[in-house]
Structure formats: C-alpha cells, structure tokens
Specification:
Two copies of one chain form a homodimer.
Chain A lengths: L5 E6 L3 E7 L2 H6 L7 E3 L2 H10 L4 E4 L2 H11 L4 E4 L6 H12 L2 E3 L11 E7 L5 E6 L13 H5 L1 E7 L6 H16 L3 E5 L3 H6 L1 H10 L3 E5 H7 L5 H8 L5 E5 L5 E4 L4 E4 L13 H14 L4 H15 L11 H9 L1
Parallel strand pairs in A: 1-5, 1-9, 2-7, 3-8, 5-6, 9-10, 10-11, 11-12
Antiparallel strand pairs in A: 2-4, 7-8, 12-13, 13-14
Chain lengths: 330, 330
C-alpha cells in the first residue's frame, strides 16, 4: 500500500452553524425535542431565522468539525462536502482551510443556498439543532475522488449523509474506494433520530463495512433497540474493529477486538455548550489512531478534545490541542 | 462435587458499627483521612467514643454485611467471625442470625471486647471509619470448619483479615479448603489503605487464588499503582475469572474472561450514607452468580443492593430486596 497522504478524510454535510442562546420555552413552543436534530425545509429555516436575535455564525458540520480536530492536533486532514458559491459557502471554505484542512470540493453555482444548522443552546448547556440541508444534499458521486480516498488512512463518514439520496451515492463511492485500497472506514451514527430513520441500513453497514464506529449512548442503544447501555455494548462487540461509545459526563467506553477500555471524561472548565463534543471526540481519537497509539490513549485524546470544545460556544477547538496532547502523553 | 449447602460463606472481622454524623472539622482535627479506614487501639477507641454524641449501634463488618445481603435476596449464606461473649457480641450474633445467616463461631470467653467500627458520616454522605479490632483478631484456624467451606459454592474473604496474624491463618485454611474441594474463592480488597499495607501479597493472592475479585476504584488503582482506572482495568484482566470494580456514582465495570460489562449505578432515592455500598454490591453480585445469571445481570443485582443500602443509615438492607430483584429480572 502506498504511503498515506492524509490521516483522515472526512465526508459530510458542509454546514454553517447559527448559534443562539434560547430558553427552554422556545423549544417547547416550536415542538423541538431537546438534544436532538430536526431537519427543516427552506420555509421553516427562514421563519426560525426571523425569530432569532444575536446569532453567531460559525462553520460547522459534524465530519468537518472532526477533521478540524484532527488538524488541530497536528494530523493531516481533508474534507469533502458541498456548499454553494454564496456568502456562507465562502465563510465555510475559508474557515476549514484556515484550520489546516485540505478542502477542494467545487461549490455549486446554482440551486439551494449553503446549508445552515440553527444550534439552540439552552441554559443547561444542551444543544438542540434544526438543520436546513440546502446545497449540502447535492454532494454528488463526482465530488468524491477515488485517489484521495485511496490516499487517506481513514475515511470518516457521517450518518447524516444518508438523508440525501444523492449524497448517499457519494457515500457508497467513498466506501467502495476505501475497501478497494485497503483503507479503513470510520462512521458516526450522528444522531438518535438519524438512527431511527435508518436502523436496518445502519446495522448492516456497521457489521459489513465499518472498521471504526463512533456513537453516543442514545445512538448505540437506538441502533440495537437495547434496554441499557451494557446491552448495546454487548451487541456491538465483534461487529467492527473498534467501537468508541461516548457517554457525556460518564466518559467513554471503547470496545476493541480483544479489549475494552473505560475512559473518564476530561474536564477543562465549566461546560458552556456541548455542540461538537462527539465530533471532537472522534477527531482526537482518530488522530491518536493515526499516531499508532493504543485504544486507551486514543480515548483519552478524544476525551481531551471533547473536554476543550464544550468549554466555549462553537464546535471547533480554540485552545492549543497540540500542547494539551503533549502534556497528556508525557 | 457434593451439592452445595451454602451459596456464600463469608469470613471476616465481626464488628459492630457505631454510627454518628459529624462535620468535616471533626475529621480534620483528628487527622482522619476522609473516606478511608484507620485502625485504632483500645485507648483511642475509648477517647473517640467519649467525643461522640447520639450514636447508633448496628451490626456491621464488611463480609458480614455482604452475606446478610445474599440472605436478603433469598440466597443461602453463612458467616465465620469472632466476637466476645459480651453485650455487643450478643447483639452481633442476634442480628446476623435474624437476617437468616448461619453463624456458629464460638464467642471468646476472655480477651479484648467485641470489635467496633466508628463510622463518621459527614454531610456529603461520605463515611470515614475508625476500627478497633478487639476480639475479631482472635479468629483462629480452629474457627474455620473445612466441611463448611467444602459445602459453600463461594467462600468470600475480606482483605481486612490480613491485618491480624492469627486471622490470616484462618484465611489461609479457608483458601486451602475451598481449593481442595473445587469451590470458588471471592475476595474484596476492602480499603485502599489496606491495599497499601499488603500490595505485593494481595497482587500474588489475586493472581494465584482468587476467582472473583471485588474492588472499588481507589483499591484497584492502588493494587496496581495505576495512573487511571482504565490502566488498572487492563492490569487486572486475566488475573481472575471475574473482577467486579465499583465506581460509586459511575456504576461498575465487570471484567470476565472474555467480556466486559459496564453497569450504571442504581438510584432508589437521595443518598444518606454510603456505608456498606461495596459490601452490598458484592452481596447482590454473588447472589446473582449463585442463581446462574450472566455477569451483566449480576452487576445489576449488585448495583440494586448498593443503591438500596445508601438510602438510609447503616450497612444492612432495610427494603425488600427480593421484591426489587423480581422487578429487575422481570
């Protein structure tokens, strides 16, 4: 196998996050399930935007956040995702490149505008998301470069891609290219509601094609319709090479072929906004794997990155993760 | 092998607990490390007793609490431990028999009085213990009946027994009898300070003779001088058939030969006094094993028993554990 050019190539919905603090009543009035992600259409997106004040726009997207995390640790990362050639699309491309991630997907010249995700942060630091997928659903097979996938140690895919038939084809092309070239496939279940929508597909995909699975407690119990975390843990065992299961304040549990690691959450300060915690956990974890660390250390790097991102608004790291990692590994 | 007469035979220091609520300052003034167990002599025991008001005397002893837990679930339990023929000794024997545990160790006619443990409960529901071992250290080889050990599926031993040279011989006799008769040996590390005192002995014993190990996080990390819980988890793997590691509010992790279970804590109400949580966890767990349940269910029964005992003062169950277990297993 050729020397890898990238440690991690992320493929996902290219989204700009619109962050805003709201009270619990705001969610109740609009029937938005707290902690979940709802898909909304253009009309609802406009109406919601009209109801919001003091918003902050920051580049987001689950897999994009993850590869930014990999780059923040010093890993080599790339990203594939579709924006439109509009203001938010320009912002997205500028931010991800500034973070050190290779990003060459051609922006759409027409069609819907760049995707945005309204991240509604309640006083308990929980986030509830409403996503208008816009241009991101037009990610096409032609946007996936087989050579780029062949040159990445790990290709990291979002469950969210399953929501757009066109993007799903791009997803399948990336999986085939990784398989053909002996590269690893990492996958995040993305969201418990996403798992509900595609349970059978996801179960099959995890068992047949996924090498490294990321899921939080709600997602993995949903995947196997399990009554408890431990039941889900037993169910996933043997389905993939590694399953990294995150549990918020309870830390994470990593299930390897022959070993299980129980890793504590990493606290760096008061929790401000949990957006991106799972994305950054995956970023730290995959960086650790690329460096050849054992699963326990990968988990600690994931916890570290998640611990950093929840201490501030926004889903991308602001502190010096390289320095933190050096301290952790000392 | 003959049909077992007992599910669990506990051997330990027979102690009456003297419970009292104190402020944090009480511990600081007397240089008592919070959460630990200090051994005190007769003189200090008398002085401490003089400083305490509104005490409650209840039968305790770590292994005794565990076998009372087994009996509360409906299991067949026995106990071996030394009291003196004095008032507290009579209380101890009456209580453990009333709980349905076979207890036939002959009380000492002379020598030091029945052991007592001052359980100092601070406002955070933590308990700090000062133990005067009294008569319990005179448990002798002759008090262990080989036939009784041979007739018990599991013989459960306290690390605390190591503190008394005489009791240590009784311990060794029980281990030899269990080994000879193909029975299981369960062992609790008892206390992080106890592990500090006998680290090398305990490591060897765990590896060579223990089938079922119980330890909390502080104890297991102390045993292997590990920097994190996960490091201790990896170290204990393969050393015994089962290691059940308790983590207070974080639940427990059970390491079997080929599987690892991650079990949540069981909440039944506000936490009043954590005394006996580890003892009752072991009781529920061993009851589950005797019933032939898998390790995940054993862990849930352990969590249930621990969850019950921390909702009230005292280290023995007051609620109907049989009914709770029936609900859990439904």
């Amino acid at each position: 196998m050729e020397q890898a050019k990238l440690d991690v190539l992320g493929i996902g919905n290219a989204i700009v996050d619109v962050l805003v603090r709201v009270g619990d009543g705001f969610l109740v009035q609009r029937d938005l399930p707290k902690g979940g992600m709802s898909l909304i259409d253009a009309e609802r997106a406009l109406a919601l935007h009209g109801d919001l004040e003091e918003t902050t726009e920051v580049s987001g997207g689950s897999a994009a956040n993850t590869v930014v995390g990999v780059a923040a640790f010093g890993g080599r990362a790339g990203y594939v995702g579709k924006v439109k050639a509009d203001h938010l699309g320009t912002v997205f491309a500028r931010d991800i490149r500034a973070a050190g991630v290779a990003f060459d997907t051609r922006p759409a010249a027409d069609g819907p505008p760049t995707a945005r995700c309204f991240v509604l942060v309640t006083p308990d630091a929980q986030r509830t998301m409403c996503t208008f997928l816009g241009a991101s659903v037009n990610l096409a097979e032609s946007d996936v470069d087989e050579k780029q996938v062949a040159g990445a140690r790990v290709t990291y895919l979002e469950g969210y891609l399953w929501d757009a038939p066109q993007a799903r084809k791009a997803f399948a092309k990336a999986v085939a290219a990784a398989r053909k070239n002996g590269r690893k496939i990492a996958f995040t279940l993305s969201d418990p509601f996403c798992v509900d929508r595609y349970r059978a597909d996801f179960q099959r995909f995890v068992k047949e094609d996924v090498d490294i699975l990321f899921a939080n407690e709600a997602e993995i119990t949903s995947l196997y319709a399990a009554a408890s975390f431990d039941e889900a843990l037993q169910a996933v065992k043997g389905h993939c090479e590694v399953a990294a299961l995150t549990r918020s304040a309870k830390g994470s549990v990593i299930v390897g072929r022959g070993d299980v690691h129980v890793i504590d959450a990493h606290t760096l300060g008061p929790i401000v906004d949990t957006t991106g915690a799972g994305d950054l956990y995956a970023g730290g974890f995959l960086y650790g794997l690329a460096q050849g660390h054992g699963l326990g250390v990968c988990g600690r790097l994931g916890s570290l990155a998640a611990g950093e991102v929840i201490t501030h608004l926004g889903a991308r790291p602001v502190a010096d993760l390289k320095a933190y990692a050096a301290e952790l590994l000392r």
